[in-house]
Every structure is written in structure tokens, then in C-alpha cells.
Design brief:
It is a single chain. The protein has one domain. The protein contains 5 helices and no strands. By secondary structure, the chain is mostly helical. Helix 2 packs parallel to helix 5. About 65% of the residues lie in helices and about 0% in strands. The chain starts with about 35 loop residues before the first helix and ends with a helix. The chain is elongated and about 55 Å long.
């Protein structure tokens, strides 16, 4: 049986300062980083803003009386929906990664995820119960596609 042992770090050659990192032709640097990093940074920033904004306001919106613009849910029901939403956001990364790996690729998964998140928020702006649940579902699906695949695309840049 042929077993390869890892090379000790001390025996590896030191990187030379003369070695240039190959750049994609036409790629302009973003503060010394690849140009696409800025797009991915702002995409991830707005996705996190969306998620934590929803966490801060979701129970308040669901438990507010209908006369005040809320849904008028009982606190226990609102808590259950909130818990389902927050856990689903993280669990959706598994099928989102599978879809990216097998079907659409990580770049398209990030794009489609962002579109789904935006569509979910627009859906929640329509004041009906059906569009509320549709919006939460679209946000969960979009975050599942986007969250895990942003890191993969950043890895491709480097």
C-alpha cells in the first residue's frame, strides 16, 4: 500500500516576492482584491441586513393587532413561526449547496438567491396572509441558495 505523508511546512520553499499573482485580463483591483469581491461583499451585507432585520421585527409584526397594521397572532403562534423561519434559513443551505453543485453552479445560485430574497421582501409588502407566508418562504429559499455559495465564489476569486 502506497501512503503519501504530508510535506512538513519547514521543508516547503518560502514564497518569493518576485512571483506575481496572475490576474484576469481587464480585472481592475478593488483595494488590492479582485473586482468581484465588492459585489459579493455588498450582496452578503444586504442579505445579512435582511435576515437580522427580519429577526428584529418579525415577532413584533406578527403579534401587533390588525388595527395597528400587524397580523394579530397569538405570541405562541408568532414564536413558532419565528423559530421555523430562523431554523429554515440555516437548514436551507444544504439543499442550496446541492443545487449549486449539481444543477446551476455557485454564481447562478448566488444570483437566483438574491432575486428570490428580493421577491420575498416585495411579496411581504402586500398586506395579506398568503403573501406573508409566500414572502417568508421565498426569503428562506433565496438565503439557502445565496448564503453558502457566496463563500464558494469568493474562494474562486482567490
Amino acid at each position: 500500500m502506497n501512503v503519501r505523508l504530508p510535506v512538513p511546512v519547514s521543508s516547503m520553499p518560502a514564497p518569493s516576492a518576485d512571483v506575481a499573482v496572475p490576474r484576469v485580463p481587464g480585472d481592475t483591483a478593488f483595494f488590492g482584491h479582485p473586482r468581484g469581491l465588492s459585489t459579493l461583499f455588498f450582496t452578503e451585507m444586504w442579505e445579512r441586513f435582511s435576515y437580522y432585520g427580519m429577526r428584529a421585527l418579525l415577532i413584533l409584526f406578527m403579534t401587533a393587532p390588525a388595527a395597528a397594521g400587524g397580523l394579530g397572532f397569538d405570541t405562541a403562534v408568532a414564536g413558532a413561526i419565528y423559530g421555523l423561519y430562523t431554523s429554515s434559513v440555516y437548514m436551507a443551505c444544504l439543499p442550496g449547496g446541492w443545487i449549486a453543485d449539481r444543477l446551476v453552479g455557485p454564481r447562478r445560485a448566488v444570483l437566483y438567491g438574491g432575486i428570490l430574497i428580493a421577491t420575498g421582501h416585495f411579496s411581504m409588502a402586500v398586506p395579506t396572509l398568503a403573501t406573508f407566508y409566500l414572502g417568508l418562504t421565498l426569503i428562506v429559499l433565496g438565503t439557502g441558495l445565496l448564503k453558502g455559495n457566496v463563500a464558494v465564489v469568493v474562494g474562486y476569486l482567490y
